[in-house]
Amino acid sequence: MAYLVLARKYRPQRFAEVVGQPHVVRTLQNALRQGRLAHALLFCGIRGVGKTTVARIVAKALNCEGNDPAEPCNRCLSCEEITAGRSLDVIEIDAASNRGIDEVRELRENLKFAPARGRAKIYIIDEAHMLTREAANALLKSLEEPPPHVYFILATTEPHRLPVTILSRCQRYDFRRIPPAVLVEHLQDIARREGVQIEEDALLIMAREAEGSLRDALSLLDQALAYGVRTREELLEAFGLAERELVEKLARAIINRDLAEVLALSEEAYRQGVDLVYLSESLTEFFRHLLAFKVSRKGPAEELSPAEIATLRALSMEVEPEEALLLFQHLLRGTEALKRSAYPHLSFELHLARLCEIGKLASLREILRKLEELYQKTPEGPPAAETVTREPSKPETDTSWEEFLAQARKEKPRFAALLASLSPPEREGEHLVLKVPRGTLLEDRDLQEELSGYFFTRTGKILEIRVEESPGQNLKERLLERPEVKEALAIFGGKVAWVKPRTEE
Ligand SMILES: [Zn+2]
């Protein structure tokens, strides 16, 4: 017996055998049972999810000589003829290859003839969006008033390309992508019927590769069986698929901005003959999942194995959400560029190197920590330039302002940095008043309190901090003058794009 591809060998012949479309099956069976099936049906969905298969089962059910109106018997002559593809009452038109108006004209001519054997005549029009406008118009006339014995089933992957006039005359059924878990179960069942034991992890990879299409999943299983593949490792090797481990290592190296490691891994993948576009796609997928874990704790759990979930959850702790999003976006773009590149190897490396550079997002906390570190390393504290421009300090406190600053440089370098460019506080009655310009970090109440508290413990005096407008200079210019801003710019190599004053609560 000639080898039959699995998709054909195991094509469902009854509603009960249809995989992953319970909502469609339920609605169709109800309509059939009540004898209220619409005469024009539209089946939408991606390739390989069972549109044509279900259309044939509907045709069989309509003409079956058995007792159940909602399930074909598959034993009567009508069922057998339809299964074998030689029924005169089921006419399949592939609109992709028969786009001409002639076929539709012929179809209209034939409509008036009664069915050859069964009760109904069923026209299955595959890839219906490919019909020419003339053919679609001709079809429309038949759809408007179909004879009672005629049914139309239009199948399409792109319903939006069908004219609204046709859409509005059809009862629409949306076929869904089949979830990986359902695909795995089905693949396992078929492998068992073929007398083959295949690792579940291997089946999961096939299911994920198929992206919800049963036909694609079965065609991968076909190839796996042909190669004698039984384990995940064998599958990855046979198909040249990127190792999950490699993807994880790469992702980790990117998150750590470890360019040397990233390039070493890329080289290894290239040497092993891994398909770089596929690797890049897997990496993109990885960051998409990572992002999902960043957003919700559960993440896309049903698509993944427990080991993958554990890795993703752990890695998601190490990235900020903005960073994960940025990396994901760049990967998406980089993968597209890679597909078009004449030098994929170089293009891939460049793409990875860029990933290590972008998105070095530092939080404000991180910036302050780095500044503090920097000042602790410099014995003199902040550069002396500011102290020169300052007026000679007035002896209004027992501990002079200069001494206080010197102490702060050792103990609280962050405060020292913030205070370095300010004039010393002035006495006002019982208080010392420190005037700070608007738009600096010292506008922050918590920070003010912390500073006053620290000042009090060091000097025994109360320091009042007053935020003032200083005329003549705009906020951005004033900020750019400030040493901590200059330092931050020097350390992080950025520039100040805009200044946003904090709004009062
Ligand atoms: Zn039958």
Automatic annotation (TrEMBL):
Its annotated function is as follows: DNA polymerase III is a complex, multichain enzyme responsible for most of the replicative synthesis in bacteria. This DNA polymerase also exhibits 3' to 5' exonuclease activity.
Family membership: Belongs to the DnaX/STICHEL family.
Pfam families per record: DNA_pol3_delta2, DNA_pol3_gamma3, DNAX_ATPase_lid
Q: Which reaction does it catalyse?
A: DNA(n) + a 2'-deoxyribonucleoside 5'-triphosphate = DNA(n+1) + diphosphate
Keywords for the protein's UniProt record, in alphabetical order: ATP-binding, DNA replication, DNA-directed DNA polymerase, Metal-binding, Nucleotide-binding, Nucleotidyltransferase, Transferase, Zinc
GO BP terms, alphabetized: DNA-templated DNA replication
**GO MF entry, a single one:** metal ion binding
Cellular component, GO annotation: DNA polymerase III complex
For bias type Basic and acidic residues, the affected ranges are 388-397
Could you tell me what this protein is called? Answer: DNA polymerase III subunit gamma/tau
Q: Which SMART domains match?
A: AAA
Against SUPFAM superfamilies, the record matches this protein to:
P-loop containing nucleoside triphosphate hydrolases (SSF52540), post-AAA+ oligomerization domain-like (SSF48019)
Q: What positions does the domain AAA+ ATPase occupy?
A: 37-179
Instruction: Identify the coding gene.
Output: dnaX
Name the EC number(s). 2.7.7.7
Region named Disordered = 378-398
Q: Which organism is it from?
A: Thermosulfurimonas dismutans
Q: Please describe the quaternary structure of this protein.
A: DNA polymerase III contains a core (composed of alpha, epsilon and theta chains) that associates with a tau subunit. This core dimerizes to form the POLIII' complex. PolIII' associates with the gamma complex (composed of gamma, delta, delta', psi and chi chains) and with the beta chain to form the complete DNA polymerase III complex.
Q: Which InterPro entries match?
A: AAA+_ATPase, DNA_pol3_clamp-load_cplx_C, DNA_pol_III_gamma-3, DNA_pol_III_sug/sutau_N, DNA_Rep/Repair_Clamp_Loader, HLD_clamp_pol_III_gamma_tau, P-loop_NTPase
